[in-house]
Write a structure and sequence with these properties.
Length: 252
């Protein structure tokens, strides 16, 4: 027998709020994003008592890699707190309490069917922002802006936050207030204090922080190569990366 679980940070949500057809029916979808896995931007003010300017992001959870080719949306259920939606929802709440720049969580939904489950999450959209993967196809960033991005990543590392998929598409830049955000914390977690690297140590080593940064650098290089193959320009240079690292290292 299927069981529905909803965890919310405030508004009274139903299972319908976690399904895109519901928002389409109410003509409240304002846009979409994503490649293989679509996310929807919705306007909750049309249906709920929320700030008029606030938009939400609706995202479903999918399997990746080889298993995802056969079973896209189902996962093994080992308990509600271990589901990907609830785990990310609670992690976002914790990071908000730490004053880290992340999206505000609205609600998590889990549909449990015996040994498996499907899940979705609702978040507040960070208005006026764009991920670096897209932004750098259009323009350059200044040295100071790269340093700020590095300092923001350092804030997460100092708090012990391990982002399992730190890449340029999961970093948002907002020009209106020159702010940086990290997004998509699926399968991410906070490391115990005894695994935190001291700020004075070099960042490119075998620590989890160093590996995290190396993964990020690879994503920039990959985007640059893909842009070149498409006769386009991705505005990322070695000097940009060094500026990012400098901003990271200077934050204590």
């Amino acid at each position: 027998m299927a069981k529905e679980h909803i965890r919310t940070a405030g508004p009274a949500l139903t299972a319908a709020h976690f399904n895109a057809p519901f928002w389409h029916l109410k003509q409240a979808v304002t846009g979409t994003s994503g490649g293989r896995n679509t996310v929807w931007f919705v306007n909750p003010a049309l249906l709920l008592n929320t700030p008029s300017q606030e938009q939400w992001v609706l995202r479903h959870y999918y399997r990746g890699g080889l298993p995802g080719k056969f079973v896209r949306k189902s996962f093994i259920f080992t308990g509600l707190e271990q589901t990907r939606a609830v785990a990310e929802f609670e992690l976002l709440k914790t990071m908000q309490g730490l004053k880290l720049p992340v999206p505000k969580p609205i609600g998590a939904y889990v549909l449990n069917k015996g040994l498996t489950y499907q899940a979705s999450i609702l978040l507040v959209r960070i208005e006026g922002s764009q991920d670096l993967g897209r932004l750098l196809l259009k323009q350059k960033l200044t040295t100071n802006q790269w340093q700020q991005i590095g300092a923001t990543i350092k804030r997460f590392h100092l708090a012990g936050v391990f982002h399992s998929d730190l890449n340029c598409k999961n970093i948002l830049w907002r020009h209106s207030d020159s702010s940086t955000y990290l997004i998509d914390f699926d399968r991410c977690y906070i490391k115990p204090p005894n695994q935190l690297q001291k700020p004075s140590l070099v960042v490119f080593d075998k620590s989890w922080q160093g590996k995290n940064l190396a993964r990020l650098q690879r994503s920039f290089v990959k985007q640059k190569q893909q842009a070149k193959a498409a006769n386009s320009t991705f505005h990322f240079t070695t000097a940009d990366w060094q500026a990012l690292l400098l901003g990271y290292q200077q934050l204590k």
